[in-house]
Amino acid sequence: MSGYDTTKAPPANLQQFYENTKARIQKIQSHLANSPRGIRLKDKVCIITGVGSLKGIGRASALLFAHEGAKHLYLIDFDTKNLPDLKATIERLYPDVKATTMQGDAADEALISGVCERALKEEGKLDVFFANAGIATVNPLEGITAESFMNVMRVNSLSCFLAIKYGSAAMKSVNESRGKKVSGGSIILTASVAGLRSGAGTIDYSASKAAVNSMAKTAPYQLQKTDIRVNSICPGLIETGMTTDTFTYARSRGADAKIGQLNPMGRFGVAEEIAQAALFLASDDSSYVNGQNFAVDGGLSSSHPVMPGRWA
Ligand SMILES: NC(=O)c1ccc[n+]([C@@H]2O[C@H](COP(=O)([O-])OP(=O)(O)OC[C@H]3O[C@@H](n4cnc5c(N)ncnc54)[C@H](O)[C@@H]3O)[C@@H](O)[C@H]2O)c1
């Protein structure tokens, strides 16, 4: 079909559409408070990195994993500031869930191998590794040095490699006496739509996330017949600590209603929506999903570029 029918277009009034978006987001963000505890991660031992940001994907995932009955969450961030609050919140809302917070670098080999070993020692198994920590960059090509390029690759890509290497070794480990009879687990990597194609990030950030997407596809073939699944999530534009400046700038110019208008849903996303994708991949609900780059982006990456407002 060519052209578009304006009578079928979404609300013509941008402000009204934005009000609807805000109401929708408020509903999404109140999901945990308004829904009963689940059992989708019952008894699962999980590691999550990058949990320290109050509005971040890692924290939202930690809370959702606890809500869904995870047994023990090992929660890592470089920045210690909000870790005590995260631990206290989980312990207050979900007293049956163990929360261990750790300060450290997700790209530190000793830390990552150590936390995997610790899970084996304390719980006898590791079920889920959500390698979510990451950094964004803002410099155009001329401002990127060889050193800064390698740092982005280290934090964003090496961290995921270490999660695969040490996470899968722990997931293969069998411990009959503690109920772990066969190999298995789920490794989830946070990539980005910037790792799928151009137009969503700087060259170093995009390259680092493309590497993550590649590892999500190659790792399953290194882990054949282990029942260890590896997938990446590719978020679109999500309001978190990482994107605060973008949102603040847009709001300062009165352009709030236009944020996210390039995807067919016409809005930005929130961390809780990415957490739901991580929950699906962490749980047995996704038992046959492997080697995928799972875009959670309102449809942004599904199309060639289109003019805003043009829907076909
Ligand atoms: N927000 C978005 O629009 C968006 C889009 C695509 C992908 N992502 C990815 O989502 C992931 C989570 O980011 P977010 O949006 O929640 O941002 P955020 O900045 O709110 O949270 C990221 C967290 O990772 C931590 N971190 C950074 N480097 C670390 C390291 N080396 N070791 C341990 N912790 C470290 C930070 O301290 C922070 O708490 C990142 O990998 C990011 O690249 C975000």
TrEMBL record:
The answer, when asked if Oxidoreductase is one of the entry's keywords, is yes
On the tree of life, the source organism's domain of life is: Eukaryota
- Alphabetized UniProt keyword annotations: Oxidoreductase
Question: Could you cite one Gene Ontology molecular function of this protein?
Answer: oxidoreductase activity
Q: Which InterPro entries match?
A: NAD(P)-bd_dom_sf, SDR_fam
SUPFAM superfamilies in alphabetical order: NAD(P)-binding Rossmann-fold domains (SSF51735)
List the Pfam families: adh_short_C2
Family according to the record:
Belongs to the short-chain dehydrogenases/reductases (SDR) family.
Q: What is this protein called?
A: NAD(P)-binding protein
Q: Which organism is it from?
A: Mycena belliarum
